[in-house]
Amino acid sequence: MLVNDSSLGWETANSIAKAACQYAADNNLRICTWVLDRHGNPLAMQRINNAPMPSTEIARGKAYTAVSFGFGTHLWQERLATKPHLLAGLNVQEGVVMFGGGLPIKHEGVIVGAIGVSGASEAQDQECAEAGIAAITQLSN
After folding, report:
1. Does 30 reside within a domain?
2. Hey, what long-range contacts does 45-52 have (CB within 8 A, 24 or more apart)?
3. Is residue 1 one of the residues assigned to a domain?
4. What CATH number corresponds to the domain at position 61?
5. Which neighbouring-strand residues pair with 115?
6. Phi, psi (5° rounding) for residue 127?
7. CA 8 to chain centre
8. For residue 134, is it within any domain?
9. pTM of the model as a whole
10. pLDDT (0 to 100) of residue 54
11. pLDDT tens, 96-123?
């Protein structure tokens, strides 16, 4: 049996990363962004000069978490509020980041990749990620 598998292409991933960074630059933010394919493999990374150094790996972790679980990283605290044992267990998993700035990227309801942004506040990281995804939505219209 063969599996038909849809994923982002590198050109689209670059467009998403560039749009997220452009939104950040327009708002005087210093961020790093990663875009991964649906399997968690890196397709694009961009870092604005002078973004905090840890933001590089945090952004990758946010994208990895979003593509792995299929929902935005900003939703973790709410989802696990009554399950501290799960929160404690997931917090020690390498590469899992459970705060805002990571979003899955979907096409026709299917996850095709994810974006992770880090370097600003959680809300600002989230806005940058949303701006990146919005850029490809505008391209397809």
Report:
1. yes
2. 45/17, 46/17, 46/18, 46/20, 46/21, 48/21, 48/24, 48/119, 51/119, 52/118, 52/119
3. no
4. 3.30.450.150
5. 35, 103
6. -60, -40
7. 13
8. yes
9. 0.92
10. 96
11. 999 999 999 999 899 999 999 999 999 9
